[in-house]
């Protein structure tokens, strides 16, 4: 059935609901190059301003899924995945997957690259010498069977509609649309074969979603869409007002991951990782109570099994697994420049987004999709909201290969901290949880 694309754009622009047939026609025609990008952009903008009913979101998700291949696993695998909506210093996936796999989980993960102020899981993993993220379906399934988890990039064949439309959303200013976010996340997570999904929905200055009310709206769309496709979804709301952990930057975040799996206590990372891991074990029915799940998680870390699983996954994906025992094998920056505060006070707020953008200037993130990364660059930042800073105190370091650029961004990083004279209460990393 043929429709007039302009009429459909106007229909959505005036707040009306698009039918299943209309959405199918528009998306499939775009993928087949029968509708130009400017009309697809116009529809995305209409959706951004007029929103979508849950039925439209579910239809869009199904169209995305059916645009490419779908991966399936045996029911006995009880597959479970985790998705993060993105944040500064967010390396949680990389430590979470080996922990849950060491507890008996099977985790198929299709992950993304960094763009804007947030880092990408694939970029972090590719800072490990030799590490590959492009595998076909057969290789992907084999690694999951052998290792327990595998983290790969989205192939041309899996959800190609989302792949093309996501790129268009990025350049048309429609990334933050909740219906479009939902269809993008859920289509990939259903097509990759995960029966269960835990979403780390980040709220705050370093996140795309700034407030909890908007976060709850998105969580509702994710859970209802999961139900439609027989996928159980649990949503953890986490605080993204401070960068996560102490390191930001690709190889630096792999170093922090390995140190955590070796047993280093990193408070915010520990709390968030274990909260998400508990949900993953409960959803996949590997554990029946939170206490049982926590015991499995603690045992996986303290015995070193989680680190062994990470080591095995690096080797399975072509990387040098010796990095788990020798961190100097990771890319190393030439300069380590101290960040010295000239002010005294309690940290009231941190503009994590501004820090993320500052680090792009030394190659720790991308300006555009084809930007070259400097895997060794980044920052070590030890202060959180509620901590005190005194004048002339070193609050961290910048790691870079261009000293002038490194010195230039220190002012931007220092300006990201808002200090006041009164003591400030520390913030919780976990804001809420719904399922």
Summarize the model shown.
The protein is an alpha/beta fold. The protein has helices at 5-13, 20-31, 37-50, 54-66, 92-102, 121-125, 137-147, 160-172, 178-191, 212-228, 250-261, 267-283, 290-302, 305-316, 352-360, 403-414; strands at 80-84, 107-111, 149-153, 196-203, 232-239, 247-248, 335-341, 345-350, 378-381, 388-389, 393-400, 417-420, 430-434. Helix 2 packs parallel to helix 4 (54-66).
Any descriptors?
four-stranded antiparallel sheet; Transferase, Pyrimidine Nucleoside Phosphorylase, Chain A, domain 3; alpha/beta; 13 strands; Pyrimidine Nucleoside Phosphorylase, Chain A, domain 2; Aldehyde Oxidoreductase, domain 3
Q: How does the SSE layout of this entry go?
A:
Layout: H1 5-13, H2 20-31, H3 37-50, H4 54-66, E1 80-84, H5 92-102, E2 107-111, H6 121-125, H7 137-147, E3 149-153, H8 160-172, H9 178-191, E4 196-203, H10 212-228, E5 232-239, E6 247-248, H11 250-261, H12 267-283, H13 290-302, H14 305-316, E7 335-341, E8 345-350, H15 352-360, E9 378-381, E10 388-389, E11 393-400, H16 403-414, E12 417-420, E13 430-434
Parallel strand pairs: 1-4, 2-3, 4-5
Antiparallel strand pairs: 5-13, 6-9, 7-11, 8-10, 8-12, 9-11
């Amino acid at each position: 059935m043929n429709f007039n694309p302009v009429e459909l754009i106007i229909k959505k622009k005036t707040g009306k609901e698009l039918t299943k047939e209309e959405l199918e026609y528009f998306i499939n025609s775009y993928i087949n190059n029968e509708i130009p990008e400017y009309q697809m952009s116009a529809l995305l903008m209409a959706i951004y301003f007029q929103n979508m009913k849950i039925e439209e979101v579910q239809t869009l998700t199904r169209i995305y899924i059916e645009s490419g291949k779908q991966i399936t696993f045996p029911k006995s695998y009880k597959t479970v995945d985790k998705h993060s909506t993105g944040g500064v210093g967010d390396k949680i996936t990389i430590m979470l997957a080996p922990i849950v796999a060491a507890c008996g989980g099977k985790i198929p993960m299709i992950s993304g690259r960094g763009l804007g102020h947030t880092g990408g899981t694939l970029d972090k993993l590719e800072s490990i010498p030799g590490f590959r993220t492009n595998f076909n379906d057969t290789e992907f399934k084999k690694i999951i069977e052998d290792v327990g988890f595998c983290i790969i990039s989205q192939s041309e064949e899996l959800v190609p509609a989302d792949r093309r439309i996501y790129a268009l959303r990025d350049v048309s200013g429609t990334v933050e649309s909740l219906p479009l976010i939902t269809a993008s996340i859920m289509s990939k997570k259903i097509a990759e074969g995960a029966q269960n999904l835990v979403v780390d929905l980040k709220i705050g200055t370093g996140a795309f979603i700034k407030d909890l009310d908007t976060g709850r709206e998105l969580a509702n769309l994710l859970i209802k869409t999961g139900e439609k496709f027989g996928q159980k979804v649990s949503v953890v709301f986490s605080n993204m007002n401070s960068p996560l952990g102490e390191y930001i930057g690709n190889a630096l975040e792999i170093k922090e991951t390995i140190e955590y799996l070796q047993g280093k206590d990193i408070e915010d990372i520990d709390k968030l990782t274990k909260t998400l891991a508990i949900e993953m074990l409960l959803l996949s029915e590997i554990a029946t109570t939170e206490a049982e799940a926590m015991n499995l998680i603690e045992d996986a870390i303290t015995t070193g099994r989680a680190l062994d699983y990470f080591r095995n996954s690096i080797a399975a994906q072509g990387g040098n697994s010796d990095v788990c025992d020798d961190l100097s094998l990771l890319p190393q920056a030439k300069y380590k420049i101290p960040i010295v505060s000239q002010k005294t006070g309690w940290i009231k707020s941190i503009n994590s987004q501004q820090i993320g953008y500052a680090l792009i200037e030394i190659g720790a993130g991308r300006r555009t999709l084809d930007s070259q990364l400097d895997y060794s660059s980044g920052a070590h930042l030890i202060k959180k909201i509620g901590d005190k800073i005194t004048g002339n105190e070193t609050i961290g370091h910048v790691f870079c290969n261009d000293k002038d650029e490194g010195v230039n961004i220190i002012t931007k990083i220092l300006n990201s901290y808002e200090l006041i004279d009164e003591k400030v209460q520390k913030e919780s990393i976990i804001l809420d949880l719904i399922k």
